[in-house]
């Protein structure tokens, strides 16, 4: 069993939450920027927010709220970035709507807003040498290797447990 994510297939064991309506799923990330950086995705392969139905839109934001709150609590974070890059020119690299959840902590980045630059670049085409000279953040990002399926599965198992606990409270 797997879920569409653009032209990728996400294994069910990397998916840690499915909304009650089954319209939306939450998956761990191949290249997370911070611990708990996950994606909330419509099951239906839709490219833009404007392609989503009312029910999908409602479920996307409700799922983002529940997942964000649960990860924030369990990871001892105190805030979160919630972001959608809606269209290629806005930085969307996978043509399938996805909402990034990034749990945040005081002092996690040198500058609070550095996260935006990283989000824009972390899944972009390979960086050029000129890019690498421009900023330390870009060099750091270049070192971030995609994770193995095993690592992602382990993380999803932990988050699935947290989601179950959250739903029972
Ligand atoms: P964006 O640049 O907003 O389109 O974000 C794409 C996101 O998808 C990035 O956070 C990537 O790390 C993530 N990603 C790409 N491929 C996969 C995959 N096969 N499984 C999980 N996450 C992925």
TrEMBL record:
Residues 124-169 are annotated as: Disordered. Residues 124-158 have a biased composition (Basic and acidic residues). Keywords: Hydrolase, Nucleotide-binding. Residues 1-111 form the HIT domain. It is an enzyme of class 3 (hydrolase). InterPro entries: Bis(5'-adenosyl)-TPase_reg, HIT-like, HIT-like_sf. The keyword Metal-binding does not apply. Pfam families: HIT. Signal peptide: none annotated. This is bis(5'-adenosyl)-triphosphatase. Transmembrane segments: none annotated. It catalyses: P(1),P(3)-bis(5'-adenosyl) triphosphate + H2O = AMP + ADP + 2 H(+). A motif (Histidine triad motif) lies at residues 96-100. SUPFAM superfamilies: HIT-like (SSF54197). GO terms for molecular function: bis(5'-adenosyl)-triphosphatase activity; nucleotide binding. It comes from the Eukaryota. Its EC number is 3.6.1.29.
């Amino acid at each position: 069993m797997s879920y569409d994510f653009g032209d990728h297939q996400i294994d069910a064991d990397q998916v840690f939450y499915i909304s009650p309506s089954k319209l939306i799923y939450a998956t761990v990330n191949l290249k997370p920027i911070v611990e708990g950086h996950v994606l909330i995705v419509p099951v239906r392969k839709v490219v833009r927010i404007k392609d989503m139905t009312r029910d999908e839109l409602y479920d996307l934001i409700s799922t983002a709220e529940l997942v964000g709150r649960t990860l924030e609590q369990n990871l001892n974070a105190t805030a979160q970035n919630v972001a959608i890059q809606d269209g290629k020119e806005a930085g969307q690299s996978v043509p399938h709507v996805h909402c990034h959840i990034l749990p945040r902590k005081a002092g996690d980045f040198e500058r609070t807003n550095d996260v935006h630059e990283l989000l824009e670049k972390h899944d972009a085409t390979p960086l050029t040498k000129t890019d690498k000279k421009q900023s330390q953040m870009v060099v750091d990002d270049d070192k971030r290797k995609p994770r193995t399926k095993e690592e992602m599965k382990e993380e999803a198992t932990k988050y699935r447990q947290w989601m179950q606990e959250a739903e029972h409270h």
